[in-house]
Design goal:
The complex is a heterodimer of chains A (298) and B (444). By secondary structure, chain A is mostly helical. Chain A has 11 helices and 2 strands; from the N terminus they run H-H-H-H-E-E-H-H-H-H-H-H-H. Chain A has one domain. Chain B folds into 2 domains: 240 residues, 3-Layer(aba) Sandwich (Rossmann fold), CATH 3.40.50; 154 residues, Response regulator (Rossmann fold, 3-Layer(aba) Sandwich). The chains are: A mainly alpha (298), B alpha/beta (444).
């Protein structure tokens, strides 16, 4: 044990935690939709791709950064409202699996539309933050990852404040708590759903920009959802805090596993190891760390 | 992008074969079924490659009226790079008459087609990829990994690194990490790197990146701890820019990363931004639009609004030029076969014969307007790769620049290993080894 390289361990751990923040960013989009409508929105990855592709296509056409961000956000809001009107509303009260399948189909439609409108080319995205390391006592930490963590923290704080201190946020919490009770007291469910889809669009845009700057704006951005699923299982599908903690745990665990036990399995284990952790956790705590326990009266 | 072209993409996405030039059952036509991928995760590569291939076929039709009067026709079916869609496309397109050759540009689809095209007696071209042992024409009469198989690529990369170190003898004591894609494609070269490490005395570590490769923090921290002299990047798709970015993030010098032939495109470097500056990768065909054949394509097709690429800025890109070279090799195989069988529509087996005599020396390559674009090829009945030469290009932040001479892989070293593998395959499948005499006859 005396030969154990603690500095390297810390470096892997910190890198994993920071990667986990990136997973959390995607997971938050799922949580928002699930919390209010009980739908696991599989199209979140496609929305992320669409947002990033729209933004980068606009900036490449000379639109200034802030304006491109605003236009893309507006487009995401429109898409969110359109999804609510054309897909979710007609399927109200249908079984969850129907809604899930609808979002699965939706993801293909959005992916196809993204390539149809903006083309199939791969784009670079420079947010002006260098992805170079700085040395903290021998541990290399990425500037970009720190920036992403700050953005994620800011977004969680903003979303928390929005849902805690605004009327819409109050309505959101009421709907999340009990849809039928919320309807009974006169809350406009479609309006709240549309707002939540718009918020999920904003999350998709921010996550899309950060992931796009990291891996390039390309089709595989939509596969990022696969990184968010174990995070949701671990943290709970309806908890923003769970998405953050779950992301950190999954990020750190998969990186440590890859480095320290990967070689015993032939390497390349982090892709599935996160799911092993999630499945194991599912057996012990099906609702996740922070998810609401489902109690049904029969 | 025009409305028509958008509709075309939408139709392709829906899996509808889109006929660009009519493959009608007429005399003096030679048909290419194209299992292309213009949508989906690998669309950037697919549009470039198939764009270049179609551009060259179109050039031959427009400029020369076809190959000795035989018009070239083609139609596309969208695969999205998925094996089952590729096989479905094969079943759909194979009924068209006068099929010359299949060119799926996909390892998975190619593997799934080997038995089928062998029964059909139609060549399957896997330029720069495919299974290494299909180089052995004694066992795989209809499969052609033209220019470069994975083992030759490995040898070419090791020879290049040796050149940078002052000779093969100086590899002793050096450390090389191979970062490979977690797929059959990525794993194909594991044994040959081990063999070369043993032969030349360098230390080797091979690290897998799980598909799709959008997270590589742990792999690059492991690399940083290993302190290698070089990292060979055997990636695909998103794995490549992420590798370059993560290398920068963990402080590994980019000019000591050597990319393989599927990590060498603009699509691999551009998303990595500054982190890709100085990155070097192997290639069989140089990029750039300065070659006479590319200029002619621009003049004849793009200036007349008939080019296949939507974005003219992609003319001369790595995938576009690979498509053009693939077009040259297909067309020349037909031309060579016509010399023997007559200037008419050929059967697939006759085209196979043409590929098995596809010998283009540098003088012929120059005559075709491709001097500098690729070096040469020398396919024979039992060597279906054709001893392609490789060169290395470096990314300057905007474009690739060639930084080496044409380098020959160590074919003599590789051939016995390839034969051992192909003979084992033949024994397993009960295939009788072909002879030179067998190869000379072709079904008409």
């Amino acid at each position: 044990m005396s030969d154990f390289d603690w500095l390297f361990f810390i470096e892997v751990l910190v890198g994993g935690l920071l990667s986990g923040v990136m997973y959390s960013l995607v997971a938050i989009g799922f949580v928002l939709i699930y919390k209010t409508s009980g739908v696991l929105n599989f199209a979140q990855g496609a929305m992320l791709l669409f947002a990033a592709l729209t933004f980068v296509s606009l900036t490449e056409r000379g639109v200034p950064f802030a304006l491109a961000f605003a236009i893309t956000f507006a487009i995401m809001v429109v898409i969110g409202i359109a999804i609510e009107r054309t897909v979710l509303r007609p399927l109200t009260n249908k079984p969850p699996i129907t809604l899930f399948m609808a979002t699965l189909g939706l993801s293909y439609v959005i992916e196809g539309a993204a390539q149809l409108i903006w083309g199939t080319q791969v784009h670079g995205l420079d947010l002006g933050i260098e992805d170079l390391p700085f040395d903290v006592g021998g541990v290399f930490i990425s500037q970009f990852d720190i920036f992403a963590a700050v953005v994620a923290a800011g977004m969680v704080a903003a979303l928390s404040a929005f849902f805690r201190y605004t009327r819409i946020g109050l309505g959101f919490r009421a709907v999340a708590d009990d849809q039928f009770a919320a309807l009974a007291i006169g809350l406009r469910l479609p309006w709240i759903w549309a707002t939540v889809w718009a918020a999920a669009g904003l999350v998709a845009l921010v996550a899309g920009l950060l992931w796009g700057a990291r891996v390039g704006v390309q089709f595989s951005l939509s596969l990022i959802v696969l990184k968010a699923l174990p995070v949701l299982v671990l943290g709970g599908f309806d908890s923003i805090l769970g998405a953050i903690v779950g992301g950190l745990l999954i990020g750190a665990t998969e990186k440590l596993a890859e480095v320290y036990i990967g070689e015993y399995f032939g390497g390349g284990i982090e892709g599935w190891f996160a799911y092993v952790v999630a499945l194991a956790f599912l057996l012990v705590r099906p609702s996740g760390l922070f998810g609401q326990k489902l109690v049904e009266r029969v | 992008m025009t409305i028509f072209s958008k509709f075309k993409i939408a139709a392709l996405a829906a899996g509808i074969a889109f006929t660009v030039a009519l493959p009608a059952a007429q005399a003096d036509e030679q048909y290419f079924p194209l299992q292309s991928y213009r949508v989906g995760p690998y669309a950037a590569g697919g549009t470039g490659f198939f764009g270049g291939f179609i551009d060259y076929l179109n050039l031959i039709n427009t400029r020369d009226g076809g190959v000795n009067g035989v018009k070239l026709t083609w139609s596309e079916a969208e695969t999205q790079y998925e094996v089952e869609r590729g096989v479905e496309a094969y079943e759909r397109l194979k009924s068209n008459p006068n099929v010359a050759a299949w060119n799926p540009l996909s390892v998975g689809i190619a593997y799934a087609m080997i038995d089928r095209i062998t029964a059909d007696k139609v060549p399957l071209i896997t330029i720069n990829h495919g299974r290494t042992d299909s180089t052995d024409g004694r066992v795989f009469p209809y499969v052609f990994p033209l220019l470069l198989n994975p083992y030759s690529e490995t040898s070419g990369i090791v020879n290049y690194i040796a050149g940078k170190e002052g000779g093969l003898e100086n590899l002793k004591g050096k450390k090389i990490v191979v970062l490979y894609h977690g797929s059959p494609y990525g794993k194909e070269t594991i044994p040959i790197y081990e063999l070369l490490a043993q032969k030349y005395g360098f230390e080797l570590q091979q690290i897998e990146v799980p598909h799709p490769g959008n997270e590589q923090q742990s792999q690059w921290l492991t690399i940083r701890r290993a302190k290698p002299d070089y990292v060979v990047l055997r990636g695909w798709g998103v794995m490549n820019p992420v590798a370059l970015k993560t290398a920068a993030k963990t402080g590994f010098p980019v000019d000591h990363i050597i990319g393989n032939v599927w990590s060498n495109s603009e699509e691999d470097a551009i998303p990595a931004g500054e982190a890709a500056k100085g990155y070097t990768a192997i290639t069989t065909q140089a990029s750039g639009a300065e070659y006479p054949v590319v200029k002619e394509i621009v003049k004849t097709l793009y200036d007349a609004g008939k080019g296949n690429l939507e974005d003219k800025n992609r003319i001369g890109s790595v995938y576009h030029n690979l498509g053009i070279v693939n077009g040259i090799l297909n067309v020349e195989a037909i031309r060579i076969a016509q010399e023997k069988f007559g200037k008419r529509t050929l059967t697939g087996d006759e085209v196979r014969w043409g590929f098995e005599h596809l010998q283009l020396d540098p003088a012929r390559v120059e005559a075709l307007g491709a001097k500098g674009l690729f070096h040469s090829i020398n396919v024979t009945w039992d060597n279906h790769e054709g001893n392609g030469y490789v060169t290395f290009q470096q990314w300057d932040g905007k474009k690739w620049n060639v930084v080496s001479d044409w380098i020959a892989p160590d074919w003599a070293l590789l051939r016995p290993i390839i034969e051992k593998s192909s003979e084992a395959y033949a024994a397993e499948k009960g295939i009788k080894l072909r002879t030179a005499e067998d190869a000379e006859t072709a079904t008409n």
